[in-house]
Write a structure and sequence with these properties.
One of its GO terms (molecular function) is oxidoreductase activity. It is built from ten helices and 14 strands. The protein has helices spanning about 45-55, 120-125, 130-140, 160-170, 180-190, 205-210, 225-230, 255-265, 270-280, 280-285; strands at about 5-10, 25, 35-45, 70, 75-80, 90-95, 105-110, 115, 150, 175-180, 195, 215-220, 235-240, 265-270. β12 (about 215-220), α7 and β13 (about 235-240) form a beta-alpha-beta unit. The chain is elongated, with a radius of gyration of 20 Å.
Protein backbone atom coordinates (compact mmCIF):
# COMPACT_ATOMS: atom_id res chain seq x y z
CA UNK A 1 0.00 0.00 0.00
CA UNK A 2 1.26 3.48 -0.90
CA UNK A 3 2.35 5.84 1.90
CA UNK A 4 -0.36 8.18 0.64
CA UNK A 5 -3.04 5.58 1.34
CA UNK A 6 -4.57 4.12 4.49
CA UNK A 7 -7.30 1.62 5.31
CA UNK A 8 -10.78 2.36 6.60
CA UNK A 9 -14.23 0.80 6.84
CA UNK A 10 -16.38 2.86 4.48
CA UNK A 11 -20.11 2.36 4.13
CA UNK A 12 -21.03 3.00 0.51
CA UNK A 13 -24.53 1.66 1.19
CA UNK A 14 -26.51 0.13 4.02
CA UNK A 15 -26.09 -3.60 4.61
CA UNK A 16 -28.39 -6.32 5.90
CA UNK A 17 -25.59 -8.67 6.96
CA UNK A 18 -22.54 -7.39 8.84
CA UNK A 19 -20.37 -9.79 6.81
CA UNK A 20 -20.94 -7.40 3.90
CA UNK A 21 -18.80 -4.76 5.61
CA UNK A 22 -15.39 -4.50 3.97
CA UNK A 23 -12.11 -2.70 4.58
CA UNK A 24 -11.26 -0.20 1.83
CA UNK A 25 -8.10 1.60 0.80
CA UNK A 26 -8.54 5.39 1.00
CA UNK A 27 -6.45 8.53 0.74
CA UNK A 28 -4.43 9.16 3.88
CA UNK A 29 -5.33 12.50 5.55
CA UNK A 30 -2.62 15.14 5.20
CA UNK A 31 -1.23 17.16 8.12
CA UNK A 32 -3.10 20.43 8.56
CA UNK A 33 -2.21 23.49 10.63
CA UNK A 34 -5.55 23.44 12.48
CA UNK A 35 -6.01 19.69 12.87
CA UNK A 36 -4.57 16.73 14.73
CA UNK A 37 -3.42 13.78 12.68
CA UNK A 38 -3.83 10.59 14.71
CA UNK A 39 -2.82 6.99 14.13
CA UNK A 40 -5.67 4.86 15.49
CA UNK A 41 -4.45 1.91 17.57
CA UNK A 42 -7.85 0.67 18.79
CA UNK A 43 -11.50 1.61 18.21
CA UNK A 44 -14.62 0.93 20.24
CA UNK A 45 -17.48 -1.17 18.89
CA UNK A 46 -20.95 0.09 19.80
CA UNK A 47 -24.47 -1.00 18.96
CA UNK A 48 -24.89 2.38 17.27
CA UNK A 49 -22.24 1.33 14.74
CA UNK A 50 -24.41 -1.64 13.78
CA UNK A 51 -27.44 0.61 13.38
CA UNK A 52 -25.44 3.01 11.19
CA UNK A 53 -24.15 0.16 9.04
CA UNK A 54 -27.67 -1.18 8.52
CA UNK A 55 -29.14 2.28 7.91
CA UNK A 56 -31.49 1.88 10.87
CA UNK A 57 -30.33 4.76 13.06
CA UNK A 58 -32.42 7.94 13.15
CA UNK A 59 -29.32 9.89 12.09
CA UNK A 60 -29.14 7.89 8.84
CA UNK A 61 -32.00 10.02 7.51
CA UNK A 62 -29.95 13.21 7.43
CA UNK A 63 -26.72 13.36 9.42
CA UNK A 64 -25.05 10.04 8.55
CA UNK A 65 -25.61 9.10 4.92
CA UNK A 66 -23.39 6.97 2.65
CA UNK A 67 -20.58 7.17 1.91
CA UNK A 68 -19.22 7.47 5.45
CA UNK A 69 -16.58 5.83 7.64
CA UNK A 70 -17.89 3.77 10.55
CA UNK A 71 -16.74 4.18 14.15
CA UNK A 72 -17.45 6.51 17.05
CA UNK A 73 -14.57 6.24 19.53
CA UNK A 74 -10.85 5.51 19.35
CA UNK A 75 -7.48 5.47 21.06
CA UNK A 76 -4.23 6.22 19.31
CA UNK A 77 -1.04 8.24 18.95
CA UNK A 78 -0.81 11.81 17.67
CA UNK A 79 1.25 11.95 14.48
CA UNK A 80 1.13 15.74 14.10
CA UNK A 81 -0.47 18.57 16.07
CA UNK A 82 -1.42 22.19 15.36
CA UNK A 83 0.91 24.93 16.65
CA UNK A 84 0.29 25.74 20.34
CA UNK A 85 -2.06 22.77 20.65
CA UNK A 86 -2.84 21.23 24.03
CA UNK A 87 -1.46 17.86 22.92
CA UNK A 88 1.83 17.13 21.18
CA UNK A 89 2.96 14.67 18.55
CA UNK A 90 3.75 11.30 20.08
CA UNK A 91 1.22 11.54 22.91
CA UNK A 92 -1.29 8.75 23.50
CA UNK A 93 -4.87 10.02 23.44
CA UNK A 94 -8.45 8.80 23.25
CA UNK A 95 -11.61 10.52 22.09
CA UNK A 96 -14.92 10.33 20.28
CA UNK A 97 -14.95 10.92 16.55
CA UNK A 98 -17.38 9.88 13.78
CA UNK A 99 -15.25 7.90 11.37
CA UNK A 100 -12.78 6.30 13.76
CA UNK A 101 -12.65 2.96 11.89
CA UNK A 102 -9.65 4.19 9.95
CA UNK A 103 -5.93 3.66 10.48
CA UNK A 104 -5.31 7.42 10.35
CA UNK A 105 -7.82 10.17 11.16
CA UNK A 106 -7.71 13.97 11.25
CA UNK A 107 -9.52 15.92 13.97
CA UNK A 108 -10.13 19.67 14.41
CA UNK A 109 -7.81 21.27 16.96
CA UNK A 110 -10.70 21.94 19.36
CA UNK A 111 -11.82 18.31 19.44
CA UNK A 112 -12.22 16.95 23.00
CA UNK A 113 -9.21 14.65 23.35
CA UNK A 114 -8.00 13.00 26.55
CA UNK A 115 -4.55 11.82 27.52
CA UNK A 116 -4.31 8.05 28.11
CA UNK A 117 -2.92 7.19 31.58
CA UNK A 118 0.36 5.29 31.37
CA UNK A 119 -1.11 2.11 32.88
CA UNK A 120 -3.99 1.91 30.38
CA UNK A 121 -3.81 -0.04 27.13
CA UNK A 122 -5.17 1.30 23.85
CA UNK A 123 -8.13 -1.13 23.85
CA UNK A 124 -9.02 -0.12 27.41
CA UNK A 125 -9.06 3.56 26.47
CA UNK A 126 -10.86 3.09 23.15
CA UNK A 127 -14.21 2.15 24.69
CA UNK A 128 -14.68 5.20 26.90
CA UNK A 129 -15.22 8.41 24.96
CA UNK A 130 -18.58 7.56 23.37
CA UNK A 131 -20.06 5.15 25.92
CA UNK A 132 -19.16 6.79 29.23
CA UNK A 133 -20.71 10.24 28.54
CA UNK A 134 -24.04 8.61 27.60
CA UNK A 135 -24.20 6.53 30.77
CA UNK A 136 -22.95 9.32 33.02
CA UNK A 137 -25.12 12.12 31.62
CA UNK A 138 -28.28 10.01 31.51
CA UNK A 139 -27.88 8.91 35.13
CA UNK A 140 -27.37 12.54 36.13
CA UNK A 141 -30.73 13.33 34.53
CA UNK A 142 -32.43 11.10 37.10
CA UNK A 143 -31.05 13.05 40.05
CA UNK A 144 -29.41 9.86 41.31
CA UNK A 145 -28.42 10.00 44.99
CA UNK A 146 -26.05 7.91 47.12
CA UNK A 147 -27.77 4.92 48.65
CA UNK A 148 -30.22 4.40 45.80
CA UNK A 149 -30.48 1.26 43.69
CA UNK A 150 -30.06 1.18 39.90
CA UNK A 151 -31.15 -1.70 37.68
CA UNK A 152 -28.80 -1.86 34.68
CA UNK A 153 -29.90 -3.95 31.70
CA UNK A 154 -27.25 -5.33 29.32
CA UNK A 155 -24.84 -4.76 32.19
CA UNK A 156 -21.93 -6.34 30.30
CA UNK A 157 -22.38 -4.16 27.21
CA UNK A 158 -20.54 -0.92 26.49
CA UNK A 159 -23.18 1.37 27.98
CA UNK A 160 -24.13 -1.08 30.71
CA UNK A 161 -20.59 -1.53 32.02
CA UNK A 162 -20.19 2.23 32.22
CA UNK A 163 -23.56 2.63 33.96
CA UNK A 164 -22.63 0.01 36.57
CA UNK A 165 -19.36 1.80 37.31
CA UNK A 166 -20.91 5.28 37.37
CA UNK A 167 -23.72 4.20 39.70
CA UNK A 168 -21.23 2.48 42.01
CA UNK A 169 -18.93 5.52 42.01
CA UNK A 170 -21.91 7.68 42.99
CA UNK A 171 -22.51 5.52 46.05
CA UNK A 172 -25.39 3.49 44.64
CA UNK A 173 -26.05 -0.20 44.33
CA UNK A 174 -26.11 -1.50 40.75
CA UNK A 175 -28.10 -4.65 39.99
CA UNK A 176 -27.36 -5.94 36.51
CA UNK A 177 -29.02 -8.21 33.98
CA UNK A 178 -27.36 -10.02 31.09
CA UNK A 179 -28.01 -12.94 28.75
CA UNK A 180 -25.32 -15.37 29.93
CA UNK A 181 -23.30 -16.40 32.95
CA UNK A 182 -20.14 -15.21 31.19
CA UNK A 183 -21.56 -11.74 30.70
CA UNK A 184 -22.81 -11.64 34.27
CA UNK A 185 -19.31 -12.49 35.47
CA UNK A 186 -17.95 -9.48 33.58
CA UNK A 187 -20.66 -7.19 34.99
CA UNK A 188 -20.01 -8.46 38.52
CA UNK A 189 -16.29 -7.82 38.11
CA UNK A 190 -17.09 -4.19 37.38
CA UNK A 191 -19.45 -3.76 40.33
CA UNK A 192 -22.88 -5.29 39.63
CA UNK A 193 -24.37 -6.57 42.91
CA UNK A 194 -25.46 -9.05 41.65
CA UNK A 195 -25.96 -9.64 37.93
CA UNK A 196 -28.99 -11.73 36.96
CA UNK A 197 -28.83 -14.09 33.99
CA UNK A 198 -32.30 -13.61 32.49
CA UNK A 199 -32.05 -16.75 30.38
CA UNK A 200 -31.87 -18.71 33.63
CA UNK A 201 -34.20 -16.39 35.54
CA UNK A 202 -36.92 -15.44 33.01
CA UNK A 203 -38.96 -13.66 35.72
CA UNK A 204 -35.94 -11.64 36.80
CA UNK A 205 -38.13 -8.78 38.02
CA UNK A 206 -39.33 -10.97 40.89
CA UNK A 207 -35.71 -11.58 41.87
CA UNK A 208 -35.05 -7.83 41.71
CA UNK A 209 -37.95 -7.26 44.11
CA UNK A 210 -36.49 -9.84 46.49
CA UNK A 211 -33.08 -8.18 46.32
CA UNK A 212 -34.60 -4.80 47.21
CA UNK A 213 -36.79 -6.02 50.05
CA UNK A 214 -39.79 -5.63 47.73
CA UNK A 215 -39.20 -1.87 47.61
CA UNK A 216 -38.11 -1.94 43.96
CA UNK A 217 -35.29 -0.07 42.24
CA UNK A 218 -35.05 3.71 42.16
CA UNK A 219 -33.69 3.93 38.62
CA UNK A 220 -33.79 1.62 35.60
CA UNK A 221 -31.06 2.02 32.96
CA UNK A 222 -32.49 0.43 29.82
CA UNK A 223 -30.54 0.26 26.53
CA UNK A 224 -32.38 -2.90 25.50
CA UNK A 225 -36.15 -2.36 25.43
CA UNK A 226 -37.35 -3.80 28.74
CA UNK A 227 -39.39 -0.89 30.05
CA UNK A 228 -42.64 -2.79 30.54
CA UNK A 229 -41.13 -5.60 32.58
CA UNK A 230 -38.90 -3.20 34.50
CA UNK A 231 -41.99 -1.34 35.70
CA UNK A 232 -42.89 -4.51 37.62
CA UNK A 233 -39.90 -4.00 39.92
CA UNK A 234 -39.57 -0.23 40.08
CA UNK A 235 -39.93 1.73 43.30
CA UNK A 236 -42.71 4.23 43.90
CA UNK A 237 -41.77 7.40 41.96
CA UNK A 238 -38.94 5.50 40.31
CA UNK A 239 -37.39 6.59 37.02
CA UNK A 240 -36.81 4.62 33.82
CA UNK A 241 -34.03 5.77 31.48
CA UNK A 242 -34.79 4.83 27.88
CA UNK A 243 -31.36 4.76 26.23
CA UNK A 244 -31.79 2.41 23.28
CA UNK A 245 -33.73 -0.56 21.90
CA UNK A 246 -30.89 -3.01 21.24
CA UNK A 247 -33.08 -6.02 22.01
CA UNK A 248 -35.87 -5.03 19.63
CA UNK A 249 -35.74 -5.89 15.92
CA UNK A 250 -38.80 -4.24 14.40
CA UNK A 251 -41.76 -3.47 16.63
CA UNK A 252 -41.41 -1.25 19.68
CA UNK A 253 -42.43 -2.87 22.95
CA UNK A 254 -45.94 -2.47 24.32
CA UNK A 255 -45.90 -0.72 27.70
CA UNK A 256 -48.71 -1.10 30.22
CA UNK A 257 -49.15 2.56 31.09
CA UNK A 258 -51.26 1.72 34.12
CA UNK A 259 -48.02 0.65 35.82
CA UNK A 260 -46.55 4.08 35.12
CA UNK A 261 -49.59 5.67 36.75
CA UNK A 262 -49.80 3.33 39.74
CA UNK A 263 -46.10 3.68 40.54
CA UNK A 264 -46.08 7.40 39.62
CA UNK A 265 -43.01 6.48 37.59
CA UNK A 266 -41.13 8.77 35.22
CA UNK A 267 -39.95 7.74 31.75
CA UNK A 268 -36.87 9.67 30.62
CA UNK A 269 -35.51 9.40 27.10
CA UNK A 270 -31.87 10.31 26.60
CA UNK A 271 -29.95 10.91 23.37
CA UNK A 272 -26.43 12.18 23.96
CA UNK A 273 -25.78 13.47 20.45
CA UNK A 274 -29.09 15.28 20.23
CA UNK A 275 -28.54 16.78 23.69
CA UNK A 276 -25.20 18.23 22.59
CA UNK A 277 -26.72 19.65 19.41
CA UNK A 278 -29.51 21.36 21.34
CA UNK A 279 -27.59 22.14 24.55
CA UNK A 280 -23.88 22.54 23.68
CA UNK A 281 -23.06 23.51 27.25
CA UNK A 282 -23.91 20.02 28.43
CA UNK A 283 -20.63 18.63 27.11
CA UNK A 284 -18.61 20.95 29.36
CA UNK A 285 -20.71 19.89 32.34
CA UNK A 286 -20.09 16.22 31.54
Amino acid sequence: MSEHKTRAIIMHKSVTDLDEIKVSEVDRPLPNSDEYLIQVKAAGVNFVDILYAKGRHQNNRALVRPPFVLGLEFAGVILSAPPHAHFLAGERVFGAFPGSYSEVISLPALSPLHRIPSHWTFPEAAGIAAALPVSYASLLRTGLKPGQTVLVHAAAGGLGLMAVQVATAMGCRAIGTASSSEKCAVAAEFGAQPCLNYTQEPVWWERVLELTGHNGVDVVFDPVGLVDRSLKCIAHRGKVLVIDFAGIDDKMEHIAMNRVLLKQASLIGYRYGESLRRCPGEQKMI
